[in-house]
Amino acid sequence: MRRPVALVFLVAALLVSRAAAKDLEIYFIDTEGGQATLVVSPSGQTLLIDAGYTGFGGRDANRILVAARNAHVKKIDELLVTHNHSDHVGGVANLLQVLPVGVFLDKGPNVEENGKYPEDYAATFAKGEHKVIKPGDTIPVKGLEVTVMTAAGAHIDRKGEPNPFCAGIMPQEGDEGENGQSAGVLIQYGKFRFSDLGDITWNKELALLCPENRVGKVDLAITTHHGTTVSPKAIYAMAPRVIIMNNGPKKGGDPAAWKVLKASPGLEDMWQLHFALAGGKEANVPDTLIANLEERCAGVYLKVTAEANGAFTVYNPRNKYMKSYPAKGE
User: Fold this and answer.
1) Residue 219 has pLDDT above 60, yes or no
2) Tens digits of per-residue pLDDT, 281-297?
3) What is the CA radius of gyration of the chain?
4) Which one is the CATH code of 22-325: 3.40.228.10, 3.60.15.10, 3.40.50.150, 1.10.3720.10?
5) CA distance linking residue 168 with residue 228, whole number of Å
């Protein structure tokens, strides 16, 4: 009788273990053309990349809170501010009213404001732990590898595969300012790879990817600078399977940039946080892949769930549509 009992306990333990196992979750939160991405590690630790705008009755902080509650998390362990523009850093003070933050990370002060941080943000991180990051640094999130690829106008110094898409692409003039200073990261969970390069500009993106692709291939990417400018085709070397467009109804989703991104080799789908009014039907993805169709919307997020083998799904809560992308080779 002991063997059957032991077998029952073993099977039960395996089922409990399997039920307890979690995947990586990424919430792309609608901040109306700003930026806020909540990353929840299988360990339960959290990384929030940017916090959207300030004001609007705490709109963006409340939308982050909705995503956090969906993920069953009650605090932000690491907050990464990619750069000091109001659509990325503005919502930090509002965020602290609804969720505690453990560590504040950024690339340094605003180069457009005499080397100073925004006052509200400086006052906020002064109350906690604050670190300035640089390319090559890792952000400690248990269960994930989070590597800083760009920060303060510099990029990671490491070898990459030669990038055949660099041919004929030249730097642009006047590529200065805070956007090009953006902190960008590569997040890896097993074989799954996700890139978020903030509002990095044409020249900085070119320096990162040419003549060698220092990022490598990724499964998932969020658009740089909300898709407002035509990114160099050097990004094609990253070969994302899925791109998330973090646009608003009237900001981001530029039709010319949309067409460049949509033509990325190996791209299976692009998803959007908003229907871009400037693009019309010709430069927007099908409605099923858009979180918010109306200009005045409920602020629906997009959710990605990724497995360590590289498989992942994208879920649109607005219409409950989900699409799975199997691990490569399956």
Assistant:
1) yes
2) 999 999 999 999 999 99
3) 20
4) 3.60.15.10
5) 22
